[in-house]
Amino acid sequence: MRIAINAIFLQNNPMEGYGHYTAEVVQRMIEAHPEDDFLLVYDRSWDKDFINKPNVTHLLVTPAARHPLSFKYWYDIKASAAVKRWKADVWFQPYGFCSLTSSVPQVLMIHDLSFKHYPQYISWYQRLYYRWFTPSFIRKAKKLITVSDFSKNDIIKNYRTPENKIAVIPGAARKGFIPLDWEEKLAVKNGYADGREYFLFVGGVHPRKNLLNLLKAFSHFKKWQHSNMKLLVAGRLAWQYDDLLEKMKTYKYRDDVVLLGYLPEAQLQKVVGAAYALVYPSWFEGFGLPILESMQAGVPVICSNTSSMPEVAGDAALLIDPASHDAIGKEMLALYRSEGIRNAFIEKGLQRVQSFSWDITAAAVYKELKQAVLPQ
Questions:
Q1: Structural domain total, the chain
Q2: Which has more confidence, 208 or 310?
Q3: Is the torsion defined by CA of 333, 335, 336, 338 positive or negative?
C-alpha cells in the first residue's frame, strides 16, 4: 500500500497535541509495515533525522500553508497534485483539513470541534474557514477518526455524520513520562521551583486553557494554607495571552508563579514527574494528553469535568467545575492536606493509564487507512 501523510506539523521541534499524536502513530506504522511505502508531505523544511526509514519518501510542497487562502492552495492544488503524481492509494489527513479536489481516498482526523464551542478564542478568518469548509471536509473524507466518544458524538450532532463513518481512536501517554525517584525530584524542584513543591499546568497559554481561574484558585489555596508551594506553567505563549500577562503584574502571589514557556521533551518529562499534582482546568478538550502523561508519571491529576476529560480520566482524577476557582482551590487543598488522598489518586492514575497504548492506536489508524482503500 502507498500511504501519503500530511506532515505539515510533523517536526522534531516544538509540538503539541496534534503533532504528538501524529508523530507517535506515523512512526509506529512505518516501522510495523516495511512492505508499504509512505510519503510524508511537508509545507516547510523538516528534520531529516526525525523519521528516516527506507520505506519513507519526504516531499516539500510549497508555499507554506499559513492562513486560509494558502490552506486552499496547498491542499487543493499543490499537495493534491503531488500526492496524485506519487500514485498514493490513501491520504492520511491528521489535522482537521483535507483536500476537496483530490481523487485519492482520504482519512480525515478531527480531534475536536472547539472552534464551534469557543469561537471567540480564534481569529475571525479562522472561524469563517472552519465554519465554511468543515462540513465539506467531512463529506469528502472516506473515513473519519477522532480521539474520544465525546468528540464523535459532537461531530454526529453538529454535522449529521453517519456513526459508522467515524472511528474513535484515543491517544496515550508517551513513554518518557515515568515516576521519578526522590533525588531526581529534588533536582528538578531545585532547578525550576527554588527547591519547593509545586502544582503544574501543561499546555499552550491561551484563554481556552482557563489559566485566569487557575490563578484565582491558587490564590485561594495560598490564603487557606499559607504554604510556600509554587505554581509552574509549562507551555508556549500561544494566543490572546496579553490579559494573563497583564494580570500577573499585580498578582499577589506572582513570585510563586513560574511561566516556563515551551520545554523540550526531556525537560518536560522531568518537570511533570516531579510535580506535586497536575492542575488542568481547561474549558474544553478533545482528549487531553497531559492527563494521561501525568498519571503515567505517578502524579495525581485535578482536571475539568467538561467535554472529553471525564472520559479520559475515568475515576482516576479529581474532577472540578472549571468555572469555579473555589472548587479548583479546594481540590488543590485536599491533595495537599491528605497524603492518603494523594496516594490513592496516584495509584488510580497508574492503573488508568494502562488502558491506553500507542501501539494499539497506531494499529487502529492503519486499519482505517486500509479500509479506506477498499471499494465501497
A1: 2
A2: 310
A3: positive
